[in-house]
Amino acid sequence: MAAPCTATTRRLVQYVVVRSDLVHTLSWPLGAVITQACHAATAAIHLNYNDPDTQEYLSELDSMHKVVLEAPDQESLSKLSETLSEKGVAHKLWVEQPENIPTCLALKPYPKEMVHPLLRKFKLFK
């Protein structure tokens, strides 16, 4: 059981945003879509490995927090990536190769309150 979050501890969260149309419209197998999210999350961690928040997140392996949200389509995912880049939010847009299809993105771990407002319009992936 994870230790309760106190006023002095920060809740670091890694957000992953996945295109829901891959499953619901384009009929991708669920396993293939989960794989895309895993690729993006791993890449975001790798690209930001030396970041202090990433190091803190990785130091607490048994209490990591990830939130998987859904973007309805490629356009909304690409627009989110642009917005995050404009705001200086570190993330990795995963583009499946060789098809060159943006499938999902993952942020580096952040304190929830820092990035949640930018992601408010995205709902939990279903």
UniProtKB/TrEMBL annotation:
Enzyme class: hydrolase
Its EC number(s): 3.1.1.29
Gene3D superfamilies linked: Bit1
Keywords, alphabetical: Hydrolase
GO function terms (MF aspect): peptidyl-tRNA hydrolase activity
Keyword Hydrolase found: yes
Official protein name in the record: peptidyl-tRNA hydrolase
Catalytic activity: an N-acyl-L-alpha-aminoacyl-tRNA + H2O = an N-acyl-L-amino acid + a tRNA + H(+)
SUPFAM superfamilies named in the record: Peptidyl-tRNA hydrolase II
